[in-house]
Amino acid sequence: MKPGRSPAAALKGRPHLASIDTYSVQMYDWMLLNMRKTLMFFSTAAAAVVCISLIATPGKAQAPAKAAAKATVKGRRMPDGKPNLNGVWEYIGTANWDLQDHSPAPGPMWQLGAIGAIPAGQGVVEGNEIPYKPAALEQKKKNKANWPAEDPEAKCYMPGIPRATYMPFPFQIIQSNKDILMAYEFASANRLINMGKPIEAGSDTWMGTSNGHWEGDTLVVDVTGLNGLAWFDRAGNWGSDKLHVVERYNRRNDDVLDYEATIDDPSVFTRPWKISLPLYKRAEKNAQILEFKCVEFAEELLYGKYKKQPAK
Q1: 166 contacts 231 by C-beta, under 8 angstroms
Q2: Where are the domains of the chain?
Q3: What is the pTM of this model?
Q4: Which helix (H) or strand (E) is 218 found in, with range?
Q5: Tens-place pLDDT, residues 209-223
Q6: Residue 59: φ, ψ to 5°
Q7: How far apart are CA 42 and CA 78, in angstroms?
Q8: Which secondary structure element, helix H or strand E, spans residue 275, and what is its range?
């Protein structure tokens, strides 16, 4: 009971205490008042302790948040701690038309109108220059003049490296704790990246021989043993059987890979040169590569001229 408060005032509005003597009522009020003060004191003290601990040890308070952010940046990992590159990936751009900057142009068949037109595109070549030797540049111009009939893509040949990476078809990375398999939708091409002791190419092939290793979180793939028959794009850019490609796959996040390829061929180019482009993870439900066995689509192009003509 507050000082100077009469017994009648103490009982006012509290009929349940009417049967208790005045002294007990005063003691009851005194105990309630002190309990409230005590609770307020401990609540204030606890809040102060929390504030002081946060100020005194900011690193510890922020550690869980930093750890979560760090895990988000690094993305998914394999059991051995390496970045998990598994998934279906695809490049979205016009590099397969031309690695360099290019303007829109009509397609080879006027009957298709705008459907078959060549879209404009920004180049993926560093400096937008491919350093051809004079004779090799003439071959490139010849290739372009004979497109699409002479393009290996039109004939359903395997695309080679690096072209397989940026064709308008997805490819799948199957990563194990030992080696890495890359399966491409176009022409059902594939290659195994050896992650163990480097091996030499047994013979020249369309997809070459790939030896890989990790440099930090970057997958580096050294490709040799290419047969020199593949083109780099539909503009006729090409390499010989002396071609050497070093690829770098660096995961920006779980949904984007940054791809680089350094191309060296002393018989065709005056110096090594590099391309770089992003690869995007296919996110639709049940994403997968499908079959594109295109041989039957190329038979007329390849063998039509050998067909027996009807007698006149």
Answers
A1: no
A2: 7-56, 87-304
A3: 0.76
A4: strand 218-224
A5: 999 999 999 999 999
A6: -60, -45
A7: 49
A8: strand 273-281
